[in-house]
Amino acid sequence: MKTIECLIIGSGPAGYTAAIYASRADLKPVLIQGLQPGGQLTTTNDVENYPGYPSGVTGPIMMEDFQKQAERFGTEMIFGTVTKVELNQKQGGEHIITIDDKEKMKTKTVIIATGASAKYLGLESEKKFMGLGVSACAVCDGFFFKNKDVVVVGGGDSAAEEATYLAKLCNKVYLLVRKDSMRASQIMQKRVFETKNLEVLFNHETIEVLGDEKVNAIKVLDIKNNKEKEISANGFFLAIGHSPNTQIFKNQLEMDEVGYLITKADSSKTNLPGVFACGDAQDSIYRQAITAAGSGCMAALDAERYLSELI
Ligand code: NDP
User: Is the pLDDT of residue 225 over 80?
Assistant: First the structure.
């Protein structure tokens, strides 16, 4: 097993940016892409707020560009999932990473950019109809609900984006917001309220997803009036936030109660030498492509400095 200088886990904006910087610094990084190369942005339709794209760009195209840029400087991409990490506690120690339960790699630095995954409500009926009407990705699955009625849950920017996207395809979209206001930015809320076939149901919670072989209705509770009702719909889309993908680092790296990795102030350093974290795996506040990319750059610079101090 040969030892490499820098191994990057994750292929979202944070991982690819770390790869661009690490490869330009001649660290010859290897990047493990995970099951969804490009990460969460590959499920986003229009990215309008990433500087450098004045007319906007689709998430998948932007991530292809990120990958090409990292490859141009020599990053080696591996399509696989990290299944085990054995992190060394000593300065200059080698970390051992297992990929797909088979291949092992030794590395002097690890950059963690594993991102976050969509949350679900945790209902039994939601699990039962997963892929049969229940989805957490409108861009991936919206097509299957063309001209049908669907329900979206959530009140943030994701929910606003998913609901307006679905409204272009579907007959009618109901947006269930559990409070009496939305958390989404003003511009996104404006789009929601201006969309004719999109109805926002404030103070509504999901009780159950109903159906036979596939979803055909959603049982909801109107919290203010304490009344239950059924909404006829074939699609049920979750847009209620994300959880960090950090389980494999449990008991080795410091994390908060939700699982976000803790980094030292003004850096990407974790509690272990040579292990750096960036992107949504360590950011519960900003969670933007641009902030993830910025923190990926920080992680690569921190890794490079760490390696040069070892010499
Ligand atoms: P957020 O955490 O911002 O919002 C989650 C929403 O889901 C909240 O409205 C929350 O309700 C609701 N929610 C959480 N749990 C439940 C539940 N059990 N039942 C019902 N509703 C629930 O997550 P987002 O994914 O929307 O956004 C994450 C970040 O990504 C944000 O910073 C956002 O700005 C950004 N983003 C930006 C986009 C863009 O600019 N194009 C697009 C998408 C996301 P409550 O408010 O009551 O807590």
Answer: yes
Six-digit token string for 227? 């009344």
CATH number of 3-117+242-310: 3.50.50.60
Ligand 1 atom nearest to 119, measured from its CA: 15
Give the C-alpha separation, 293 to 18, whole Å: 8
Residues 95 and 107 sit within 8 Å (Cβ to Cβ): yes
**pTM summary value:** 0.78
Q: Which tens digits make up the pLDDT trace of 274-310?
A: 999 999 999 988 888 999 999 999 999 999 999 999 9
Third-level CATH fold of 120-238: FAD/NAD(P)-binding domain (3.50.50)
What is the tens place of the pLDDT at every residue in 199-219?
999 999 999 999 999 999 999
The token pair at 31 is 């990047």
Ligand 1: distance of its center to the CA of 241 in Å? 5
Question: Which positions are catalytic?
Answer: 137, 140-141
